């Protein structure tokens, strides 16, 4: 077994990746907005400086400035000038719907169903991959911290973000850049779906127990159990979403 390549402290570095294709501006906005919504960059935190972000995303600083302007206009960040300045996250985590589910178009439903199927393949594999590895003391600490954050979240909005970060931490510690990219994508779709349905306390309690089971399977170096428990976790979340969100599609 090999040690994991990344720690959760490096999560923003592995989530943000060089953009591909000719739509650099749009790709920058998408990656940065996703990282902010999932809590990789938390409320009140300062983003890396312009040079560092441009290097991570593989774009010119001019393109990055345009992307930052779009994020400011959308209310996700603000930029403070001066020696102590920087770009600070201002987006408040939002609580999932407490009343009714959103109406979903047929196209959106098809895309989300595909995302749930894709997640069922990717995330159990990520958990199994991580369970095969001998974690360093730092990586083990980061995984435990990520689990403690979701288990101890005091509000529904913070629980949603912490939940995403726990799954992203598993992907990051697996050491696979492609796994991180895939999990980031499915978590972005999942975040959108879960934000559109009522929060059920029973489901949160069940989800937290499954998170603990996943954590223990990884720490016990049991990839088969890690895969199985993550599959059950993905299946239960998908069943909830299909029942509450996708049932009314036209």
Task: Summarize, please.
The protein has 250 residues and is mostly helical. It has helices at residues 11-15, 24-37, 50-57, 61-73, 106-131, 137-151, 156-173, 177-194, 201-219, 223-244, and strands at 77-80, 86-89.
Question: What do these coordinates show?
Answer:
With 250 residues, this protein is mainly alpha-helical. The protein is 63% helix and 3% strand. The protein has 10 helices and 2 strands, in the order ααααββαααααα. The protein has helices at residues 11-15, 24-37, 50-57, 61-73, 106-131, 137-151, 156-173, 177-194, 201-219, 223-244, and strands spanning 77-80, 86-89. The protein has a two-stranded antiparallel ribbon with strand order 1-2. Strand 1 (77-80) and strand 2 (86-89) form a beta hairpin. The longest helix has 26 residues, at 106-131.
Give short descriptive properties of this protein.
about 250 residues, single chain, disordered N terminus, mainly alpha, two-stranded antiparallel ribbon
**Major sheet: order of its strands?**
1-2
Q: How would you state the average pLDDT, rounded?
A: 87
Report the biggest beta sheet as strand number plus sense, adding barrel if it closes. Answer: 2 strands, antiparallel
Unreliable parts: 1-9
Strand content: under 5%
Following the backbone from N to C, one meets helices and strands in this order, namely HHHHEEHHHHHH
Query: Percent range for helical residues?
Result: 55-70%
Briefly note the structural class of the backbone. Answer: mainly alpha
Q: How many distinct beta strands?
A: 2
Supply the number of helical segments.
10
Radius of gyration: 18 Å
Distance between the termini: 49 Å
Shape annotation:
globular
């Amino acid at each position: 077994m090999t040690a994991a390549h990344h720690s959760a402290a490096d999560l923003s570095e592995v989530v943000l990746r060089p953009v591909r294709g000719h739509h650099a501006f749009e790709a920058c906005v998408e990656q940065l907005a996703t990282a902010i919504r999932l809590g990789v960059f938390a409320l009140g935190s300062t983003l890396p400086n312009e040079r560092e972000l441009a290097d991570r995303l593989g774009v010119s600083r001019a393109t990055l400035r345009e992307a930052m302007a779009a994020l400011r206009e959308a209310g996700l960040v603000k930029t403070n000038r001066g020696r102590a300045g920087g770009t600070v996250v201002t987006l408040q985590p939002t609580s999932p719907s407490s009343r009714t589910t959103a109406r979903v178009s047929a196209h959106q439903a098809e895309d989300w169903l595909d995302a749930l199927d894709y997640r069922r393949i990717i995330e159990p594999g990520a958990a199994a991959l991580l369970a095969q590895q001998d974690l360093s003391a730092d990586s083990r600490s980061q995984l435990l911290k990520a689990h403690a954050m979701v288990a101890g979240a005091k509000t529904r909005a913070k629980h949603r973000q912490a939940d995403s970060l726990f799954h992203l931490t598993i992907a990051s510690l697996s050491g696979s850049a492609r796994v991180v990219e895939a999990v980031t994508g499915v978590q972005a779709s999942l975040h959108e779906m879960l934000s559109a349905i009522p929060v059920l306390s029973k489901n949160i309690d069940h989800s937290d127990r499954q998170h603990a089971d996943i954590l223990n399977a990884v720490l016990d170096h049991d990839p088969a159990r890690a895969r199985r428990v993550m599959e059950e976790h993905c299946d239960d979340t998908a069943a909830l979403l299909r029942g509450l969100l996708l049932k009314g599609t036209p």
